[in-house]
């Protein structure tokens, strides 16, 4: 009986010694290293998201890019067009429900052909009350795009590089074109060439909710350079 109690006591002591052997070095390491870490919370302002960083050095505000709220002269007020197709929404007194602006890339001819043969058939070859255009920029395939447009007559080609960083130019070009050449459209819709649009459902929604949607009355542009 005494031998069993002795063995139990020894096992308990060994367990305590092992636990202390593990816990003490961890405590010493954390106590030594964590003190050098400083939690920095950047104050929120209208031009940047609130960010939280773990830093070992004080925050250097001089390295931050200050972006102005009003961007006067940042973009050209008018984008020159290589291919215009200004006749798509004519005659100007004809009622058009929707003009669909489809962002595409020069190499995506297959995607354009597929949607021309599927949901764009509801446009009746751009003669119905729904019209569409494809939005593209310049590239090494500009000649091929001109040949494609000769057959389809549905491309708007802007005089800017067709790259990811220039997507904003496609958006600006679409609204400029719609404002100038498709003022008789009741709605302007922008989408991409990898999207399937259910035209009958779209028409039903705009007919039943002509005043739908929401408008941000108090908002400011996002000036974060990390955001597209």
From TrEMBL:
The keyword Translocase does not apply. The keyword 4Fe-4S does not apply. Signal peptide: none annotated. It is found in: Golgi apparatus membrane. Pfam families: Galactosyl_T. It is a single-pass type II membrane protein. This is Hexosyltransferase. It comes from Mytilus galloprovincialis (Mediterranean mussel).
């Amino acid at each position: 009986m005494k031998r069993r109690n002795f063995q139990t006591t020894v096992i308990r002591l060994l367990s305590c010694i092992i636990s202390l052997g593990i816990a003490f070095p961890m405590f010493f390491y954390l106590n030594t290293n964590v003190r050098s870490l400083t939690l920095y919370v950047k104050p929120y302002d209208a031009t940047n998201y609130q960010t939280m960083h773990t830093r070992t050095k004080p925050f250097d505000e001089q390295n931050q890019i200050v972006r102005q709220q009003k961007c006067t002269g940042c973009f050209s007020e008018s984008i020159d067009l290589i291919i215009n197709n200004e006749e798509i929404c004519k005659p100007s007194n004809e009622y058009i429900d929707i003009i669909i602006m489809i962002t595409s890339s020069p190499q995506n001819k297959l995607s354009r052909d597929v949607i021309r043969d599927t949901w764009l058939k509801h446009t009746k070859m751009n003669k119905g009350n729904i019209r569409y255009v494809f939005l593209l920029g310049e590239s090494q395939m500009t000649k091929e795009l001109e040949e494609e447009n000769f057959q389809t007559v549905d491309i708007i080609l802007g005089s800017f590089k067709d790259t990811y960083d220039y997507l904003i130019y496609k958006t600006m070009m679409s609204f400029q074109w719609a404002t100038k050449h498709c003022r008789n459209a009741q709605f302007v819709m922008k989408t991409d060439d990898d999207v399937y649009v259910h035209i009958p459902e779209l028409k039903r929604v705009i007919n039943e909710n002509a005043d739908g949607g929401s408008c941000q009355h108090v908002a400011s542009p996002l000036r974060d350079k990390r955001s597209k």
